Amino acid sequence: MIHSVISSTAIFAASDIEATLTYYKDVLGFESTWTWGDPPVFGSASKGGVTITFNLQPELAKNIRGHQHGVRVDDIDQLYQYHKSTGAVIVSKLEDKPWGVREYILEDLNGYHLRFSGPMASDVPKSKPLPNEVAILRRKPTMDEYTAVAGPAFHHNDPNPEILEHTWGGVIAQLPDGQTIGVARIMCDAPGWYSMWDVAVVPEWQAHRIGSEMIKAAVELIREASPSAIIHLFTYKHGFYERLGFTKESVSVLRL
Predict the structure, then answer these.
(1) How confident is the prediction for the chain on average, in pLDDT?
(2) 3-state class of 72 per DSSP?
């Protein structure tokens, strides 16, 4: 028998729903999403792709200190410094762990221990400033440029001219000798609706803020054409795009 498992949401016992949501918003940086009841007996807070629901159970909440919940993040060092600055109770400092993650633990106001983890420090390349010799140009890549840069990154083994024929705009990163080292495509899906595709930088030039600068240029290109446009993209690197102003929202997908 095949069972379709869709998602899972943690439900924490709380002694005070409103106080808990305020704490998660002001101290942990979550966003209060909804409450139910007057006064509330249920509530929910979210940040990126993480949602935690709270149930008013004061007696149970008295006995849950130390119960743990894991949260995976992209930029673990940045979030750690943020939580220290807001006064979160850190019960285990940030450090690389033998099991291959960089992690710290904090205790929320109800006593739950949140284990925030991300890539180990040795796995994250330090980003360098954009080199002066790299030019960010607002134009569609040629087929050769697209194939050379985006092909290996997204496993596009066979050049398909229709990809660029249907591309509304683009951004490239180029060296003084004319070598293209980064590409990004923009699609206009409908009036006021745009999407970004195939944002790629060749491996030897990654961690130089080239991808970030291409995204910024692409956003400005869209803004000039449609000041109130909505831009969406498909990515597994939500943390990178959230730092550039994107937010993670739910979509429905059917795989055929």
Answers:
(1) 89
(2) strand
**What percentage of residues in the chain have a pLDDT greater than 90?**
66
pLDDT value at position 83?
97
26 in any annotated domain: yes
What is the pLDDT, as a whole number, of residue 3?
A: 64
Q: Minimal CA–CA distance to 55: which of 67, 74, 42?
A: 42
How many CA atoms are closer than 13 Å to the CA of 198, on its beta-carbon side?
28
Please state the domain count of the chain: 2
Of residues 226, 216, 227, the one with CA closest to residue 184: 216
Range of the domain at 204: 135-242
DSSP label of 48: T
Q: Give DSSP secondary structure letters for 167-233.
A: --EEEEEE-TTS-EEEEEEEEEEETTEEEEEEEEE-GGG-SSSHHHHHHHHHHHHHHHH-TT-EEEE
Q: Residue 123: is its pLDDT beyond 80?
A: no
Predicted local distance difference test score (pLDDT) of residue 152 = 86
Q: Which residues pair with residue 230 across a beta bridge?
A: 193
